[in-house]
Amino acid sequence: MLHRTQVACAGLVAMFALWRPVEAAVVINQVYGGGGNTGSIYSNDFIELFNADSVAISLSGWSVQYASASGSTWTSTPLTGSLQPGGFLLIQEASGGANGVPLPAADAIGSIAMAATAGKVALVRTTTPLTGSCPSNSTIADLVGYGSSASCFRGSAPTIAPSNTNAVLRGSAGCSDTADNRVDFMVGPPAPRNTSSPANHCESVNLLNWRRSIASLWSTEVAMIWVNLVISAFST
Asked: CB of 93 within 8 A of CB of 119?
């Protein structure tokens, strides 16, 4: 028969084996599709990525992809290199005209013509174009549907619509990630950042998520595991 201390230790080990901290990763941080249009701030569309993790992440073989709000055809821009912790990566895309000022030095350049007010952008762990109006491939690292007519998005709804003068920006300079586009993104003036921009580390946000995860240990499911362990130990 196991000693009660051994049972307690076994229960704690089981609970912590089930727990994982909230995973941070590279996410889509900013989307601007008004580049070059009348009244635009910048001359080119752009997508900005952010590494919310505490380690560098290789983007070699990854891509950013775009489809129109209701479209099922995706266009890809390949990525290379690594993104440092708290770092930003700027991907320059097409221009809709001669308006606006040039972007800061881009880390990657594509030719995707993005709509200003509604569309879909995906960060994909491969360069193979997605298919379908709302793909659910396991290779999708992040997805943002912007504008009310976007047919695919994370969470409850797409972001509020941006414009020629506004982008959609992830909250807390990239650290807000509830897997809900409507909650995580706000509309505001575009503020493109590249790999030379100051890093934004998410320790305080991650600490809050860690505390919430610890609290969730005492869920009904975990409590039942504990009870079953005790019963099993004392019936042996």
From this structure: no
